[in-house]
Amino acid sequence: PDEYVPGFKEKSLNIIKPCMELHSRLLEITALGLRWPRDTFQKYHNIGKPNHNSVRTLHYYPVPENFTLFPGQTRCGKHTDFGSFSLLFQDDVGGLEVKTVDGEFVAATPLPGAILVIE
């Protein structure tokens, strides 16, 4: 994509690398919390080797004030993030909801500078 957005790769790697390091630490802490060897999950998440990691950049545009949402229509329906952890970076607009263990959807209110970690 650098030919369309100059510097895209470099800027992307500047965020991806620290995220992968955080993800790696979370895997390690999880293993230790379970009293398992610290590298238990690492073999499934090695950067540069075949693994199941993915990075996506999503931007959901704001809905205009005069926009009509018809019955049964959703912008992004309920879904499950798959994998070990999801690291979510939100802006101050909000709108993200998470499902509690009781099955209730609650707002995931954005906190400045915070990363929402979902297991």
UniProtKB/TrEMBL annotation:
Top-rank taxon, per record:
Eukaryota
| GO MF annotation list | metal ion binding; oxidoreductase activity
Pfam families for the chain? 2OG-FeII_Oxy
Domain Isopenicillin N synthase-like Fe(2+) 2OG dioxygenase as annotated: residue spans: 56-117
Q: Which InterPro entries match?
A: IPNS-like_FE2OG_OXY (IPR044861), IPNS-like_sf (IPR027443)
Keyword annotations: Iron, Metal-binding, Oxidoreductase
Q: Which PANTHER family match?
A: FI07970P-RELATED, OXIDOREDUCTASE, 2OG-FE II OXYGENASE FAMILY PROTEIN
The record's comment on protein family reads:
Belongs to the iron/ascorbate-dependent oxidoreductase family.
Name of this protein:
Isopenicillin N synthase-like Fe(2+) 2OG dioxygenase domain-containing protein
Q: Which organism is it from?
A: Owenia fusiformis (Polychaete worm)
